[in-house]
Amino acid sequence: MSFGKAFGELVKRRRGIEGMTQQALALIAFGDERYKTRISELENGKTAKPQAKTIDALVVALKIPDEELTQLLNHAPHPDYIENLSDLFDVSEKGRLHAEIGIESEEGGAFFLYECPMKCAVKRLEFFTEEQVLIWVTDAERRRHFGMPLDKSVAQHLVKRTEITFYFIGKGLENAEPQGTYPLKIID
Asked: Who has the most CB within 10 Å: 41, 49, 110, 143?
């Protein structure tokens, strides 16, 4: 089953639990009743790859628990779930985000280096071992794909970690400032 079809079934089920019409959901999620058509197409399995902003809006509007969405992603991963992380960083001055994730040593911790200030707060990170995908979960329950392929050595050692430390390197690598350590959830 495609992610779109599985997500559509989840939306339909949750909408029923909440006792909401498609029109009411469209108003809550998108601020416009005309999005009822989009919800109908999604619930009827006609949308194979729903857009990230559509997923986020419906997850928030229907109060879909994070665990339920994670379970859905495990069974039907969305290949283009989120494009990249650039919308979480202020890239206006530099034009693009330069970031890198790495492992200090086999026994050491994992780190994330970035050079543009963050525009959001991170709640935790999730690493899907089968797809080799790293996902950011923000404090607003938004989910963002790391957007860059992980180095093989990083991916193989990431499964041994329980957290990742973020370092802001806007003033150069030698002046890296730790910005926080976030839990890492490994999803097999």
From this structure: 110
